[in-house]
Amino acid sequence: MRALKLALLTLALVPTTWLHGERPDRAHLPDAGLVDLMPALRGDLPDTGALRLLGAWQIIGRSRTLGTLSSLAQTRGGLVSVGDRGGVLWFSRPDFPGPWRHRLDRLIHVDWRRFHYPTDSEAVVVLPGAEDLLVAYEGVPQIERYSHDLTLRHPITLPVLSEWPENQGPEGMAVLGDGRTVIVGETYDRWLDRTRHPGLIFRGIPQPFETPARFELIMPAGYRPSELTQMPDGRLLVLGRNFSLAGFRSIVAVFSPRDVRPGAEITPRVIARITDPRIRDNYEGMTVTREADGSEVVWLVSDSNEMSVMQRTLLLKLRIGPDAGKGASAVGVAPDRQTAPARSSARAGERAGAAKTRNVRRRLP
After folding, report:
1. Listed residue (104, 101, 161, 103) closest to 135, CA to CA
2. Averaged pLDDT, 137-163
3. DSSP 85
4. Where is pLDDT greater, at 340 or 310?
5. From CA 311, how far away is CA 331, in angstroms rounded?
6. Taking a C-beta distance cutoff of 8 angstroms, is the pair 353, 271 a contact?
7. How confident is the model at residue 295 (pLDDT cuts 50, 70, 90)?
8. In this structure, are residues 334 and 95 in contact, taking their beta carbons and an 8 Å threshold?
9. In angstroms, rounded to a whole number, what is the distance separating the alpha carbons of residues 267 and 169?
10. Contact at 8 Å (CB) between 136 and 160?
11. What is the dihedral angle through the alpha carbons of 313, 84, 12, 309, rounded to the nearest 10 degrees?
12. In the predicted model, is pLDDT for residue 330 greater than 80?
């Protein structure tokens, strides 16, 4: 992720014409607000496809947290996004009636930084029950579990994460319906193959020093995983990101939880590509909600890297149908016809052992 930020900073120094308008004056903005983008899109918005665009908003405001959102999860009260600088945005669904409600928070407060807590969070899961947050970071061999009110913190040391480069660590994490936790890394699993990414399988919520089983996630060339989530019907979705001088491109791909097993090589089936310049950006967060009519909706949020001229913090709402991947789709959300159906082949399995230590929660200083 840091390599991407450096590339964006370099690109910012190149004279370029951008279509997102003038840089807003943050002093005159609210702490957080929404701009509805759909009125400008509806005139050219087909109503069929693998992922149909139902809503698009730009999140604006004075807070720097709004330019760093890198994960997304569902809560009982709406949605939560955690940023790669430790900021947290709790917010209600903007498609629901009434005013948009939000609350800004932090995992680690500024006066706690002397304790060297990690802040580069890249993935978040809201756990069932008490709705604790499970957060994964780049650059440290641990994940952390927070109480829902963020007053309790439980670090979980995972030495296996030290095998991944500091700036290409965990990007996607999901707790499956069967209780297993799956983590996917942004780094490459093999030196000469730029499509294979490492995946870890834990038998439940990861325990300190647990040794996970492993698998490989095979992405389309040029795309790296940036988020992982499970749909209410059980299927897994992976969000992929590509960055070049032409800008960002994103894909959404699907595979079965049955494919996730030790030694597997999983090639998810791409069901959509987000390429239209009106809505494409650096999408890093994704979650899925089940609607009152039984349909399932994919939510995406982008990380603008605090660069409001070159990028925007966007929130998309897309409906996914049972025929995902068959036929045309909405504006800028095109199905892929080149990727083979999801397949998974087992290699020599790895036995997942666990060296557990006492599970202690401690209060933040």
Report:
1. 161
2. 94
3. T
4. 310
5. 19
6. no
7. very high
8. no
9. 20
10. no
11. 20
12. no
Ramachandran area for residue 306 (φ above 0: left; ψ -120 to 50: alpha; else beta): left
Residue 48: what residue type?
T
- Residue 61: both structure tokens together: 């405001």
Measured from the Cβ of residue 307, the count of other Cβ atoms closer than 10 Å reads 17
Radius of gyration of the chain (CA): 19
Distance CA 320, CA 252 (A): 11
Count of Cβ atoms closer than 10 Å to residue 80 Cβ: 23
Q: Which residues contact 272 (CB under 8 A, 6 or more apart)?
A: 49, 50, 51, 251, 252, 318, 324, 329, 333, 334, 335, 336
For residue 44, the tally of other CB atoms under 10 A from its CB is: 11
The dihedral formed by the CA atoms of 14, 18, 22 and 24, expressed in degrees to the nearest 10: -80
Where would I find the H helices in the chain? 2-12, 38-41
Q: How far, in Å, are 159, 281, 290 from residue 140 at the CA level?
A: 9, 27, 34
Distances (CA, A) of 132 to 54, 76, 98, 100, 151: 30, 12, 27, 23, 11
Q: What are the backbone dihedrals phi and psi of residue 152, each rounded to the nearest 5 degrees, phi first?
A: -115, 135
Of 24-28, 133-137, 330-334, the range with the highest mean pLDDT is 133-137
Please give the structure tokens belonging to residue 41: 């899109």
CA–CA distances in Å: residue 125 to residues 4, 244, 305: 24, 29, 22
CA distances from 2 to 7, 9, 236, 327 (A): 9, 11, 27, 37
Query: How far, in Å, CA of 248 to CA of 45, rounded?
Result: 21
pLDDT in tens, 222-278: 999 999 999 999 999 999 999 888 889 999 999 999 999 999 999 999 999 898 888
- What the block records as the tokens of 237 is 């979705």
| Predicted structure pTM score | 0.83
Burial class (CB in 10 A: 0-12, 13-18, 19+), 295: middle
